[in-house]
């Protein structure tokens, strides 16, 4: 689906067999009867993607930021969060973290605490309660949380990313007039084994088409095979802060003497700024990415 300068959306077909075009691309196209042909993809400022063992999965291009949306329920995976953050850092795309379903007080409290290390390392983080507001038909969401989120989104193109059931499409419905995206109860989605949203779509929040939200299908695995293991620490702010204290310039932070990261993890004076779970995730990722390089 190609959007023209005037805002019309036209079905276009890529030239050649394999389509390389992704949501957010700027393209040149030619009309053919009532549809069109994609002639050329303009150079991208960035491409947010994951690299699984067998294939590359592109999410979107030319982004200003990624909103990683998780929820009190279903419980989010810190592993997946860390992977999404690393992928964003590697492309120099600003990540924002939001935790939805604050109306579910108890699981929300637990999930919010689990995010403490990510707040400490400087990521912007928002609590949200998307659904309870979306219920009132035609009502404008003007509470403090929604306003804060709107201010962050204003004038930008934001990819909304997160596990299935987090509320990505509910957010789209809340912020985009007449979006009417299909959403579903978690139980239904999980029982059918399918994600409710199956394709990635860009929606304009404003009539002037300056603020865009990109709704995407929930992800389960997030391969980082495009990342060099030696670069990992660079993409993890809590590690980066201490990696400069390492004795060896090519320190892996796994076993070396004089390692700034290891000494921070083991530090006994107060709480370490590198949590045990982050260090474990780092070690596992390092091993995973070292293994599959050829
Ligand atoms: N309790 C509660 N439920 C919510 C909230 N926001 C959304 N939901 C519900 O969560 C369920 C999943 O929402 P969706 O918007 O379909 O989730 P999604 O992230 O788009 O899921 P996929 O399309 O499968 O990736 C729906 O039943 C929503 O009504 C909230 O703030 N609180
Ligand atoms: Mg959805
Ligand atoms: Zn080190």
What are the SSEs and their pairings?
Blueprint: E1 2-3, E2 9-10, E3 12-14, E4 27-32, E5 35-41, E6 47-51, E7 56-61, E8 65-71, H1 78-90, E9 94-100, H2 105-114, H3 116-120, E10 124-127, H4 130-134, H5 144-153, E11 157-161, H6 168-175, H7 186-192, E12 201-204, E13 212-215, H8 237-243, H9 260-265, H10 276-291
Parallel strand pairs: 3-5, 8-9, 8-11, 9-10, 11-13
Antiparallel strand pairs: 1-2, 4-5, 6-7, 12-13
Guanosine-5'-triphosphate (GTP) binds next to helix 4, helix 6 and helix 7.
List keywords for this structure.
3-stranded mixed beta sheet; 10 helices; globular; Rossmann fold; alpha/beta; binds magnesium ion; 6-stranded mixed beta sheet; binds zinc ion; Ribonucleotide Reductase Protein R1, domain 1; 13 strands; 294 residues; binds guanosine-5'-triphosphate
Structural overview:
- The protein is of the alpha/beta class and 294 residues long.
- The chain has 3 domains: 2-41, no CATH class; 47-215, 3-Layer(aba) Sandwich (Rossmann fold), CATH 3.40.50.300; 229-291, Probable gtpase engc, domain 3 (Ribonucleotide Reductase Protein R1, domain 1, Orthogonal Bundle), CATH 1.10.40.50.
- 30% of the residues lie in helices and 21% in strands.
- The strands form 4 sheets. A 6-stranded mixed beta sheet has the order 10-9-8-11-13-12, with helices on both faces. Strands 3-5-4 form a 3-stranded mixed beta sheet, with no helix packed on it. Strands 1-2 form a two-stranded antiparallel ribbon.
- The longest helix is centred in the C-terminal third of the chain and has 16 residues, at 276-291.
- The site of magnesium ion has 4 residues, from helix 6.
- Residues 243, 246, 251, 253, 256, 259-261 line the site of zinc ion (ZN).
